[in-house]
Design goal:
With about 210 residues, the chain is mainly β. Helix content is about 10%, strand content about 40%. It has two helices and nine strands. The relative contact order is 0.20.
């Protein structure tokens, strides 16, 4: 049997063996031989650097580019701001009832007219009328009151034949539901007397202070 002589690899086999070693251990080779910062963005594939390859808590705020949002922990709540200026008062509702007359004024208090208030609220109301007495030397006193719930205002005027005398009343009241303002009058004297141009008006207001 022929003995094998000393094996001497050819240059081509040496180059091929080196290439194979580089291919099998390329990653380790590159990690050992690449200079720091020698791999730029262009050499990296999209998505090559992600949360799986970056160690936890290794990215600092100084590593982020300008304009990147940095969200820190929520701070303590600040103090309340100053109270704003009060806005203008809203519109008011007004109601009015008018009777020309003449209406005879009885000797006992009688409602001559009523003003209906359709909704709850605070109201300022007033009523006025003028009175004329009839009969020979007729004269006397007219007493009238404007009533809103438990609130009222009463006024008097003197009347005489062929003369007109005016009377005005005013009252404030807070209704808790729909209600009425009632104008009641009575005449005490000689002859007869009538009420003319009776008007009752009420305005709803936002705030009402009634002091006595």
């Amino acid at each position: 049997m022929r003995s094998l002589g000393r094996f001497k690899p050819s240059p081509a086999m040496v180059i091929a063996s080196v290439a194979l070693l580089v291919a099998l251990g390329g990653t380790s080779w590159a990690a050992v031989t690449l200079a720091p910062r020698s791999v730029g963005n262009a050499a990296l594939k999209t998505g090559a650097v992600n949360s799986r390859v970056i160690a936890d808590k290794q990215v600092k705020s100084t590593d982020l580019a300008p304009g990147v949002i940095r969200q820190g922990p929520a701070g303590a709540q600040g103090p309340a701001g100053a109270t704003g200026a009060a806005g203008p008062a809203g519109p008011s509702d007004a109601y009015s009832r008018f009777l020309n007359g003449p209406l005879a004024v009885p000797s006992s208090p009688t409602t001559l007219t009523s003003l209906t208030i359709p909704a709850a609220g605070q109201y300022v109301a007033w009523a006025n009328a003028f009175f004329v007495a009839f009969g020979l030397s007729a004269q006397g006193t007219v007493t009238c009151g404007l009533f809103g719930g438990s609130d009222s205002d009463v006024s008097q005027t003197y009347v005489a034949t062929a003369a007109a005398f005016t009377l005005t009343t005013n009252v404030v009241h807070e209704f808790t539901a729909a209600g009425t303002f009632d104008f009641k009058c009575a005449y005490s004297g000689t002859g007869t007397t009538t009420a003319n141009d009776i008007k009752v008006t009420a305005i709803k207001v936002n705030n009402l202070t009634n002091t006595g």
